[in-house]
Write a structure and sequence with these properties.
Blueprint lengths: L5 E4 L3 H12 L2 E2 L3 E3 L4 E7 L5 E6 L18 E4 L3 H13 L3 E8 L5 E6 L5 E5 L1
Parallel strand pairs: 1-5, 6-9
Antiparallel strand pairs: 2-4, 3-4, 4-5, 7-8, 8-9
Length: 127
């Protein structure tokens, strides 16, 4: 068994898509638009086959996102090296994204940083 994709509702579909393309090298499928419900989505794909579905629909509530709360905490992306974690973290910081922590070695040995990226949702960068 494998996870087929992870889905994320966003307010600004185009900005979310651009984040994944610009900073994480994703490729983007065609925009899907259900004209009856005005639901729109993009599938964002990565070289290893992982996919994220970005979704938007009128009336979706944009709740505050606490860093420490129940539910999904973050999505982690392996970027290949400590140096790449450092580079991407600085690139994102300079682009105005909040670096929540890191880069750092965690107690369980991961080298990572966490960024409040797509509309405040946490993205973790790791080796």
């Amino acid at each position: 068994m494998r996870i087929e994709h992870i889905a994320l509702y966003v307010s600004d579909l185009e900005a979310a898509k651009d984040f994944f393309v610009t900073f994480l090298g994703a490729s983007v499928g065609a925009l899907y638009h259900n004209t009856r419900t005005d639901f729109r989505s993009y599938f964002i794909s990565f070289d290893d086959g992982a996919r994220v579905e970005l979704m938007n629909k009128p009336g979706i509530m944009d709740a505050d996102k606490a860093v420490n709360c129940t539910g999904y905490a973050h999505v982690a992306f392996s970027v290949g090296s400590k140096e790449r974690v450092d580079e991407l973290t600085e690139l994102l910081r300079n682009a105005g994204y909040e670096v929540v922590n890191g880069p750092r070695v965690t107690g369980d040995g991961y080298y990572e940083s966490s960024i409040a990226a797509v509309e405040g949702n946490l993205i973790e960068l790791t080796v």
